[in-house]
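W.,

You were right to be curious about this one. When I first looked at the sequence I had no strong expectations either way, so I just let the prediction run and decided to look at it fresh. Below is the sequence, 102 residues in total, followed by the output.
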Amino acid sequence: MADTSEHGTEKTDQRQPVHAAAVIRAAKEQLTELLSQPAEAVSACERHENGVWRLSVEVLELPRVPDTVSLLASYDVEVDDHGVLIGYRRTWRYERGRVDRR
C-alpha cells in the first residue's frame, strides 16, 4: 500500500508482516467483534504466497445447557499479512458434542 507524504512524495507501508500466532489472535478478536459471538478456537491456519492467511475459526453461536449441545459454527476467514481481517464466511454449524461426519 502506498501513501503520499505532506511533501507529495510516495512512501511505502513500513509495517512488518506478522507471524502465525499474531494472525490467529487478530483473526479471533476481529471476528468476535464483527459477529458479537466468541471465537473459541482456530482449527486451521495457512499462509498463501500472496501474503493472505486463511484460517478456519470455530465460533460459539448459541450457548446451551448442557454445553455439549451448544451450537458452534466454523468460519473460513482471510487475514492480510498485517493481521487485518479482509473476509469471512460461515461454512457450517454443528453441536459441540457431535462427531464430525462430513
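Here's what jumped out at me. Residues 16-95 form a domain with the Nuclear Transport Factor 2; Chain: A, fold (CATH 3.10.450.630). And, maybe more interesting for your project: The longest strand covers residues 85-95.

Coffee later to discuss?

I.
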